[in-house]
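Q: Here's a chain of 292 amino acids. Please give me its 3D structure as C-alpha cells.
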Amino acid sequence: MSQSGHSEVPPLPPSFKSESWLNSPLKTPVGNILLAGSLKSNTGLKPNSRRILGHYALIYLLQGAGTYQDIKSQRIPVSAGDAILVFPEIGHTYGPTLKQNWNEIHFVFDGPVFKLWRDKGILSPEKPVFHLGPYPEWDKKFRNIICPENSHDPAEPLETLGRFIQLLNTVLSKNQDIPTSYERHEWLSKSQKLLSFHNDSGWLTVQEVAIQTGLSYDNFRKLFSTHTGQSPGQFQKRRKIDYACACLYQAELSLKIIASELGFFDEFHFSKTFKKIVGCAPSEYRKKMMGR
C-alpha cells in the first residue's frame, strides 16, 4: 500500500504495479474508505524504521511471505492467505523477506464505527495478524466490496461501507488462528516460517524444523500445540493446502503433480485432505475458480 508516513520508501522493482479501486475517498457519516486497491511486487516498508499511518489499514497477502512488526516488538511471520490489521497510532513495519516481494490487496479506512469497535475491544492491536486461508476466494470477496458481482460500477457509499464492515467482521473472527506472544517465543515465529516454506527441494519435515529451532522433537510438538492450539503437522498441512489452492488457480498442473510437490502419498490422499479442509474436491475447486 502507499508508502507515506515516517518510513523511507524502498526502491520499487521494475515489475511493481499499483491498481486503485476508488477514484476518490468514499465517505459516509459512520465511516470512510480512503483507499482501496492492490499492489503487485511490493517490497514493503523499510525494516529498520516505523511508520505511523494515521488511519486503519487492512492488508491481505495474495502472494509471497515476510513479517509484520510493531512498536510492541511483535515480529510475526506472514504469508499468502494472511491479513494484517494496522492501527492509526501504532508505529509498524511489514514486508517480504530479503530480496523478495509480495502481492497484496489493501483498504485504508477510519470513522466513528471503527472507533466504537476499538472502544469495545472488537478491534485490538494485540491481534494484528489473521490467517484467512486460500487467497482466490478472498480476492473475490475484497474486490466485491467496491464493485459488486455482475456490476462494473461502485454501489452507494453506505452499501459499500456495509459490505466492508461485514467482511472486516469475518476477518476479525479468524484471530484465534494466530497466537499473539511472538515476542516471547522467537522459536515459534521461526518454526512457523520454516513449516510454511517451500522451495525446489520440497518442504521441511516437522523433525527438521524442530532441529533448526533447537528443541527436541517431542518438546517442540508439545510447545507448538500449547501456543497455537494445533500440532506443527496440522499447521503445515493447512499451509500446504493454501499452496495447493494457488496452484489450482494459477497453473494447469495435474493433481498428481501437485500431490507430489506437497509430499502426499498419492493423488487420493491429497484429494481427501484437500476436501476435508476446503470443503470440496480439488477438481471442483479448480472449476469453481475458473468459472467453469
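Q: Can you summarize the key feature?
A: Residues 1-16, 176-184 have pLDDT under 50 and may be disordered.
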